[in-house]
Amino acid sequence: MRSLFVSLLCLSSLLLSSSSQPHVDTALTYVGYAEHGNNRGHLVDTWNRNVGAPLGSPYCASFVSYCLDRAHALSPRVRSASSRAFAASGSISADKVLRGEYIPQRGDLVIWRRTPTLGHIGIVTEEWRKARGRTVEANTSNGESGSQWNGGGVYERIRSVSLYNHFRITHFVPVRYANDRGVVQWLERGVHYPDVAGSSPASATTQH
């Protein structure tokens, strides 16, 4: 038992720290990339293949999944072409941001809703000021004109929470690494950590 405990602690120290949020750094390297054709291009195809989505699928969630994989993020476990699949265990309602109960942090995933099953997803790049802040997103447009959820590339954006828009932010999801304080405590206790060891990652889907 002691050897297992020591091994788990060693594992936690070897994996990347959440303070650097490497999935953000990965995402930012692609800013300015433009697709070639409708949801196609070498990188777009790579991101969609990574989650088993058909080529030509919307790719905002595939991009986020790819960045999480490259950074070896531990939680959320979801890897999907569906943005709404990330609004599950561990997600924080946008209501809490408006009430001042939560401030979106660098590295959080930000999820939009445009229908009950379709939406959009991006990554917070710096701590927000109240309900407004910067993101990096794929499959969006470089500004307010053009499609916000089916645009032509990867861009940095300034977004805000408004619960009354048709296309609106509904959730934020913190991203965790194995040496986050909460995850280390889970390793030390050897007990179930719901957002890490919960249900299996979502299967690929073409929903956006």
Spell out the key features of this protein:
single chain; 208 residues; alpha+beta; endopeptidase fold (from Nostoc punctiforme); 6-stranded antiparallel sheet; 17% strand; disordered N terminus
Note the overall shape.
Answer: globular
Number of self-contained structural domains: 1
**What is the class in the CATH system?**
Alpha Beta
Strand content: 15-25%
SS elements, strand count: 6
As a percent range, the share of helical residues equals 25-40%
Main beta-sheet strand count, sense and barrel state: 6 strands, antiparallel
Strand order of the largest sheet: 1-6-2-3-4-5
State the separation between the terminal residues, measured CA to CA: 44 Å
Structural class based on helices, strands and sheet pairing:
alpha+beta
Q: Radius of gyration from the CA trace?
A: 17 Å
Folded structure, characterized:
The chain is α+β, with helices and mostly antiparallel strands. It has one domain: endopeptidase fold (from Nostoc punctiforme). Helices cover 28% and strands 17% of the residues. It has seven helices and six strands, in the order H-H-H-H-E-H-E-E-E-E-E-H-H. A six-stranded antiparallel beta sheet has the order 1-6-2-3-4-5. Strand 3 and strand 4 form a beta hairpin. Helix 1 packs antiparallel against helix 6 (181-189), helix 2 packs across helix 4 (60-70) and helix 3 (42-50) packs across helix 4 (60-70). The radius of gyration is 17 Å and the shape is globular. The chain starts with a helix and ends in an 11-residue tail after the last helix. Residues 1-18 and 182-205 have low confidence and may be disordered.
